[in-house]
Structure formats: structure tokens, C-alpha cells
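Notebook B, p. 112. Complex prediction, attempt 2.
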Amino acid sequence: MKSYDVIVIGAGHNGMIAAATLSRKGLGVLLLEASPTYGGMAAGGEFAPGYAGPSLVHSLNGITPAILKEMQLDKFGLAPLPTMTTCLSHDDAPLLVADNYQIAAGILSREDEVGLAELTRRLKFQASILQQFLADTPPQEGAFPFSMKARLAKTAFNLKRSGKIEMQEFMRMALMCICDVVDEHISDERLKGLLAFDGTLGISLGPRSPTSLFGLYMRLATRSAGADHTNGYSINAAGRLIDAIYESTKAAGVEFGFGRKVRAINVNNGLAGSVETTDGETYSAGSIVSAIHPATTFLSFVGAPKLDTGFSREISSVRSRGNVSKLNLVLDRFPHIASIGGSGEGRYVLAPSANEVERNFNPSKYGELPDAPCFEFVIGKGDRDTVYLSAIIQNTPLNLKQGWESGSKRLQDLVVNCLERLAPGIKSSIVATRFFSPLDIESNFNVPGGHWHHGELQVDRLFSLRPVFGAANYRSPIDNLYICGAGTHPGGGLSGMSGLNVARALIRDKGRGGK
Amino acid sequence: MNQQSALKNRLALQDHWLKPVLQTPFHHFIAEKMHGSNWYDWAGYDAASYIDDEELEYFAIRSTAAVFDITPMVKYRIEGPDAERFLNKLTLRDVAKLKAGRVQYTAWCDDRGHVLDDGTLFRFSDRCFRLCCQERHLPWLLDCADGLDVEITEVTHEIAGLALQGPTSAAILRKAGLAINSMKPFDLARFKLDDLDIEISRTGFTADLGYELFVAPQEAGRLWELLWEAGALLGIRAIGYNALNMARIEAGFITANADFVTSELALRPDRLRRPDEIGLAWMVDLTKDHFNGKRAIKSARANGTGGHVLVGLEIKGNEPAHHAILYQGQKNEVGIVTASIWSPMAKRNIAIASIQQPFGNASNTNLWVEIYAMRELQYHKMMKRAKVVERPFIHLPRRTATPPGDF
């Protein structure tokens, strides 16, 4: 039996960042990964059969300066990325929206220009309050350090100092729905559609669901916490970043074990001591960091019998039913979007109005597909002079009533027909296709429920409550077992903070030697 | 409108009296002996507070034999290859040490080590158990069984039970033809009288010689007749809870939601209690593998955060200190009396009390109880000195004598 200081499970970006950070502190680290390659959901591989490229991710958001520094990513070079979004609609003219919902002067009505300025200022301010906590280790019962109390006090003080109105507005808006807030400020349907789409993408809420505004806060906060050039839309950006993280992890001296699927984390008397893989190997370690879905970690690998009943009950109640599908199209030329008169690299969103996004969400509650799906797609240059179109489709529930066997085909047809309406002739330019339903994401990427964030990123599951109270500070009720990944604070996306935080927690607990 | 239909309409408007209260299969036998209607609600069943005279009933426990209906006690059947593993995860004590045919007094906690309930665990075989307790816990038990091969069924309604307690209880059983002589305290055995199946455990809530008998509900009448026939000349008497409560205080036993608040029912966070805080520290087996609350109990012990103790008190005078406040130096409030009587057996004024640490120890000579005694519509306030003493308050050699004597 081979023995290590630390075993990290899952070579997603968080797992690699944790492994590299620990290894640089002088610990012997083994990184076990079930699939044959690194990157997790952001892994490269096949964009479509026969075409290389990332399967799922086509945007970057919020890699923090702390990660860039720790992983020395700047030396791998970060180029500015396209951040422009084009809002499409079947009836209206397209609308160009820059990062942070900036729109060039003279496009919107005068009232909307004023309203949008006020709305974005307010959202940015409120998101900045949350942003202060994104990089933190959430406090837990019995682990509420002075620094966190000071942080909370400072935040409260700053909020108070910003004026009575701002404070009142934050208290009023924080748990509202997106529609009610945007309706107060703007009337442009395309813009409202984009805000509604962005705020609810990847979570099971509609723009009229209470608390949906929080989704928008999280998006804004994550993005503005990111270092320069780490936000944007590009087919290959995530892949380049993941490659850089891998190189850096390798350089840090981490031993990789690809294709080693973990079967169990052996726990004896409340103490995690070793990891068993499906090929029958056992690896022992002083500490184990699990960078995968919390349900897999605790319910499959540790097993409910080894956990306190209240805790396993909480973990089983983490809502993790994915509702996003992915469609990759390889085209032989750039599509000709009629309303623009062409197309180029960048992001396009089809969410014609906030009501349309809400209408889209409704059937998903009942396990049905929308009739006219809302989706975003990123276009970029692909392999061998092709063009890649990478689409993320909202509100496509995991528990589809008709079943995903027939549902996959139906959803693809809906999306492709929709694209054909926007860009006549696109259908005939399709060379290859690959589709992932939430069910496919579950099986291809070992994510229970196929949820992008490894569990709903909603107010009841944030910060000290993510994944559940009692395991939110990257430690777990099992001694020597640590967790990170999208299922922990600050959630999904590609921020990498949970990987860094878990490494820090481990070092703090075990001393620099980590043993 | 005629009078009758008007009455009917009015009755229909208030139908609370239709709310079902279950009756145990012994109900009619007890009701027959009861003068009046002295029922209280025990877990959804009518249970007797007293039959006619609670003092005579108490003395039946101590001098002859008393019969108390324990059918309402919540009971779970726990069966399967992982039953022992499940119970070891659920409860504080090591179930591997509980042999088939034995009974274990035990307790179980939530994640934070706060006591959910206490109860008795009967082991029938390698893989078949029964858990008896005060509160209902099925959702917790089922969730605790997640990942284990064990079947848990509530069988409260499927089993009728009687406690037979007192010095002549063994004689009555012998007379009835049951060979209970070799049964030691906490033994459990199955008997057959003609075609009547009876489960008997040598257990009870009285610190006296006593047994608990279980039959199928449809056999309840036969069991009752059997006991009454055999006990006619041995002083058998039906009793209610008030008498039993006196005996259990003398025994120093605690009752959930009387002496401590169970963690699922407590509304106030400072009312929650760990085993160490209610005198159950001896149960906690930290040498066995993981069980619910183990981590929390261990860390509470390491941090020395056991805020309370549950102790026996001996109080000067003869006035029971019902729910009286405890003071250190007659001034600082440090606890509360949870149960108290003037003990006819110990001839002392005794109580069970929850006290803040570090005041609950035998060397504390400055502990006082404030007693308010109602004397003709006026309270007499008394400050009485109290002393922490060992529980139980009485020791009866007949409780453990094997084979048990005739009386």
C-alpha cells in the first residue's frame, strides 16, 4: 500500500489547485482522477466526434488574483477575451451589450439609459458586498474566528456608511426576483431578457422566482472578483487555463493517477485514513481532500453509516438536479445571422424578454421541455478550418418526463431549428454534433444529477450553508477528510477559490509539515 | 325545528370530542377497577393516572405486587443482518456486548450529542431487536439506517404490555405456571402457557423485584385473567402512573421530557442536554466505532463544556420541592428540581435536580432549595438546605436476588 501525505480526489481545477498548493508546501500529494484526463467539467477532449475541443465550458469567469499568484498562471500568459454579448431575438433588432451590462450611448431610449445606469450601479454596489466574502472560508459553529467577525462588522459599518438609502435598498432588493427589480428601472425587453437569462442560468429558478436576483449578484460578484483578462467568452479560453493549471500542478510535483476511479474513502472510528479505487488499489494518506460532488464524497465514498444521521440527512437533501444541456455544433463556415448580416467570435444570447425566460422555466418545473428554448451560444474558430458553435440551453430538467432518450433528439431539433430561423442555412453547414443532457453530464463527468454547480447555488445553500452547515469551512465531520469543489463556497464557475481555501485550511490544521 | 336536530347541529359544530384517543387492550379491565375517570394521554393512549388511591397503589409496588399497563410505550422492531451495526450507530452503548435474551438500558443522541431519548433495547437473537422508548422516532431511525440492511417497524400497537412490580411479583408468576426462577435482572425469555405466548423481561421502573410481560393484543385478556387469578391472594393491584412515578423517583430513574427535554422537542437551545449532563455519562462507549453524537460528545468533554449535571438531592424537612429553584448560598440561582417526593421507603425528602456546574457535587454544603407550600390560600416560603447524594435512593436486595423469593 502506497502512502502519501495528502490524497486529492478529482482533477478538476479546484482539485489541481489544492494539490499544487499543498505540494508546494512540501507535502507528498497524489491526485486521483476517474477519467483519463484532467480538468473535470472544464476538461478538453472532444468537442464533437472527431473534433478536439472542450466539451462543456465556453466561458471564463472570476479566476482570482490569489489563484494566478499561487499557481503562477501569469507566466502562461493571459490574453484579453471577448466580453461582448449580442442579444438576439426573432422579431427585434440585435442588441450589443458589453461587460457589466454597458451599452453604447444612443441605442436605448433616454429613460432606459438613465435607468440602466442606476440599475447597474446599484447591482454592482450590492454585489460588491457579497464579493468581499467570496474568497473567505465561511464560519461554522465553534469555528468563528475573530477575523471573520471583524469582516462582518466592517461590512455592516461600510454598508451603513454608504447611506441610509443604499442600505435600505440592499435590504429591500436582496431577496427579490429579477423581473421586479429590472422592471423598476428599464423597459427594453431584450436587455431585461439578458439579465433574466444571466441571473438564472444553471440554477432552477425563473426570473420571477423570489431570490432569483441573488443569481445575478453571484454572477457579478464572481466576475468582478476575477483578475484582469479572466472574464470572457471563448471556445478555448477555459481549455488554455486548465492546461496552464495542469502544467503548474505538475511542476509543483504532484503525482497524478489518471483513470483511477475511487470506490471508497476508508473511515475508521471517525478518522479518514485511506482511499480505495475500483481497480482494487488502496492508498493511505494523512489527509484526504475530496474535490468532487459532496454527495459522492459523503454518501458514496464514506457512506452514511459512518456519518452522523443529521449530517447524512442534510447531505442527501442538497438539491442537485441539473437543468442545463449542452449542444456542440461543428460548422463548415461562420453562420450568417440575418439580423446582424453575418457573425463573428463571441457570445450570443437568445432570450428575447424576461417573460420569455420565465415562460421557458415554467415547463421545467413539471419535467417538460420549453417549446422555444432560451439559450446562449459562443462561436469560435475550431479544428481544421471549421467553426465551433457551443450552446448552453437553460431549463432542460434532469427528470424529463418523456425521458432523455427521446428528449435529446427533440431538444436538439428545437435548438437547431431556432438557429436556422436566426441564421438561415446554418443547418446545412453542420458537420458534426455532440449533445449532453443533464443525464449525460452526470454519467460523463461523474457529477450526481449533472448539476453545473454541484448543487443549487441559491440563498439556502451559500456561504456557511454550502454544501451544508457543518462542512462549509472545507473541513468535514470526518477527521482528516477535507472537501472543496463547486459544491462548496463560493460555488461553481472557474474561480478556483475553494481549492486554494481547502489547502490553506489543511495547512492551518496540520501545521506546515501537514502530517 | 325539533330539539333533537338542534342539539345535533350544535354538536356537529364542536367535534373535538370525536378526536380519537386510543385505548389499550387492558382498558376495560382497568376502567372496571377505576373509581372515576382518571386518564391522561400517554403517546395517544388513555393511561391511568391513578385507579382509586395512589398511596395504596404505591404501597402495592413496595409491599405486594402492582400491575401497570405499559402498552402505550413506543416500540420498534429492528431486524436484519445489519441490525446490530445499526443500533451501534444509533445508541451510546456497545450493542455487541448485549447477548440474545438480554435487555439494555440505553440512550441515543443527535449529531451534536444532545439526547433524543432513552429507552430499553431488547435483543431476541443475533439480528432481531426491539427498542422501547417514550417519544416517537421513526424518521430518525429510518434515516439512521441509510446504507444498512435493516428493517425498522413501529410495533407499538402490535404488542400489549404489563409491568408487574413488587415483592410478590415472582411468586405470582410462579403460581401462574411460569418458570421465571433462573431469570436474572435484565434477562429476557419467551414462555408458552398452553397456547399463550408470553415474553417476559426482568425489568421495571421501580428499583424493586419486577417483570414486564408482553403478549399479542388479542391475548391481553388472557394475560390479565392469568395474573389476577394467580395474584388474588398475593396482593395484586392495578396502579396508575402517579404511584409508579413515586417508585421511579426513589429508584432515581429519569423520565424523558420530565427530567430533561429531548432534543427534538426542545425549543430553546440552552435546554438541550448531552448524556454527561443528565447522568448518562456511563453509557457513552467511546471505544466502539462511530455512533451518532460521538464526535460532539468527545469534543464537549475535551473542552469541558458540560454545563449541567443531573443529581439526586436530599432536602431537609418533609415538604416535596416540586419544580423548586436551587440556590447557591441562598442567592445565586443554579438549577431546578425536576422531580421530588417525600420517600416513604427512604424516609427522606428526596429529589432529582438539574444543576449548573460546578455546583452539583456532594462536597457542596451551601446548596439551598426554595419551596413554596400552599397553606390555606397562602404560600409559605421555605429555604431548605439540600445535599447532593447518590442515586438510587433505596436499595432492595430482592431486586437482584436470583432465584427471587416469594416476598
